[in-house]
Every structure is written in structure tokens, then in C-alpha cells.
Write a structure and sequence with these properties.
heterodimer; A: mainly alpha; Rna Polymerase Sigma Factor, Chain: A; Arc Repressor Mutant, subunit A; 2 domains; 67% helix; globular; B: mainly alpha; 0% strand; elongated
Chain lengths: 210, 80
Amino acid sequence: MQAPRASAADLELVERLRARDETAFMELVDGLTPSMRRVARMFVSSDAVADEVVQEAWVGVLKGLAGYEGRASLRTWIFRILVNIAKGRGQREARSVPFATLAGDDLDAPTFDAAAFDHSGGWSTLPFDWRGMPDERVTGRETLAVIGRAIASLPPMQAHVIRLRDVLGWSSDEVRNALDLTDTNQRVLLHRARAKVRAAVEEHLRSVSA
Amino acid sequence: MSRDLVCREVVELINGYLDGSLPADVRAAVEAHLAGCDGCTMVLEEFRQTIAMTGMLTEEQVASAQRDILLAAFRGWATA
């Protein structure tokens, strides 16, 4: 079956995107994301990975937009990008250790940069101290948005663990069972996730206090 | 735990400490260190507060953060 060609509406939308119209982009994102997530989920093992595939597909759409010639409808073209990425992820999941793919490759990374400590392991440069800042500033809407974005950019399994533990308040046993993790893996994932979220909060509060 | 912990080690144990998942001897060593270390005590407080703030988020806010990231990607693309 021949895929439908681009409609006049498609071409007009593409023109708006190429003209850097962000409203047009976000309308497209909002319109297609739910069905993209369902399609991605057919190829990968979890909602968290499907979300990541969708994010990656949108980035691919932006990269490819200059070369879109309207031979297929915009929707068809976007879903082709999505399915390619989802298939690749699905194949990697099937043949490799899923834990390493999903958990992120930074589980051994230190919580703070090595330069924060002196040769004996004591602090040489302390992190930013936000304890003196007004509460409404620290826990305001902006900081919460920073936390949301930090969580959304974590590797899927780290995002899953922190969402269940700290956003939804599940116990470590509940999370372990739901995600089929060992106790150690659960703790390591949570520690990495929290370390990155704390670092994002620190960076944000440092910049607004300056 | 027979020896004292240094700051670089303590920060890796802070979340285990906050979750109560450390063995008793390690927990005692962390507490002994915290009692004499302002820097690590500050970091502990920052983690505690970060966790509390994460708990103030709703799942919808986490989902809409994914949208924010795409908007940022578009803006980056648009100015490239």
C-alpha cells in the first residue's frame, strides 16, 4: 500500500516549523505523543523506555525536518522515525542485558565531582549552601519544575525508581517487587537518581541566588 | 566499621542513611562523621529537602516536564 502523500495542511505545518514556530511544534507534539507512546510500547518492555523512544523520535524529527520533501504525509514520516528508533531499542533490549541498558551507564559515578574533595577525601570545595535562602524561594514552583525536568532526563530505570519512591511514596520493597530489582540495584538506582536531582536543584538555586 | 569515614565516602552513604538501609555499624560510623562535619551535614540536609520537594511533585508534573524538554530541544534547534 502506498503511504499517503503530504497534504496541503502538512506542507503548511512544515513551513511553520521551518519558520521556528514553537506553538506549531508543541501542537504537533501534543497531538501525536499519545499514539506515538502506544506504538513505541509495542516494541519495548516498559512505559519508561517508550517515553524515552518518543523523546528521541521528536529530536529525530527536528533533525530530519530540513530534508522532509512531502513524499509521505507528515504523520507517516514521523511514525517511520519513531518505529525505527523503537525497533532498535527493542532489539537491543532483547539481545543484551536489559538492566544495563535501562539503568544507565553512570551507576558507579561519584555523587560529587572528584575535585570537590582533597587528597584525604575531605571537602575541598563545598557544594552551594542554600540553607540561608528563603523557603518560598527554595521550594517554589520553579524549583519543582527543575526537579521534574531532572527526573524526566534520567535513564529510564532511574526515573522509574525515583518516581515510585519519592514522587508516589512507595516503599523500597514495593518498588523492588514492581520493577523486579534486587535490593542493591534498587538502592543504587535511587541514589544516582537523587544525586542528579539534588545537583540540578543546587545548580538552579545557585543561579537564582547570584 | 573499624575505621573513620571520610567525606567522599559519607556522601555515597547518605541516601542509604536517610532510608535506614545501612547496617548498624556503618550507620554508626556515618553518624559519628556527621556529628563533626558541617559540610556533610549540609549535604544531608540538602538531600532531605530535595526528597521532600520531589514528593511535592505530581505524576502530571513529571509528565509535563517531558514536554518542557521537547520545547527546549525545539528552541535549541530553532536557534542553531
